[in-house]
Amino acid sequence: ARESLVALVSTSDRDSGANGQVRCALYGHEHFRLQPAYAGSYLVVTAASLDRERIAEYNLTLVAEDRGAPPLRTVRPYTVRVGDENDNAPLFTRPVYE
């Protein structure tokens, strides 16, 4: 479902001023987006419905970067594995059996 919570991500930077201000970005797939939660924390949420039969796992990249000059960054890969739902009814292979 859209807007489903996938993860809560927290960032921190012990520097002061602009060097300690962190911004985050999420890359890898349009089915996910990053939403600010509270100071230094972000929610990774679904931007579209996921279907395990179509895509079983997604590889995402989270980038945290400070506002220093030059900016410093940390890059973290994340794998989201999609659980299977019982969303397909059983089917008969033929319309009539004799």
TrEMBL record:
Molecular-function GO terms, alphabetical: calcium ion binding
Gene Ontology CC terms: plasma membrane
Top-level taxon of the source organism: Eukaryota
InterPro entries: Cadherin-like_dom, Cadherin-like_sf, Cadherin_CS, Protocadherin/Cadherin-CA
Subcellular localization(s) per the UniProt record: Cell membrane
Coiled coil: none
Ranges for domain Cadherin: 4-92
Protein name, entry field: Protocadherin-8 isoform 1
Species in which this protein is naturally found: Macaca mulatta
Lineage per the UniProt record: Eukaryota, Metazoa, Chordata, Craniata, Vertebrata
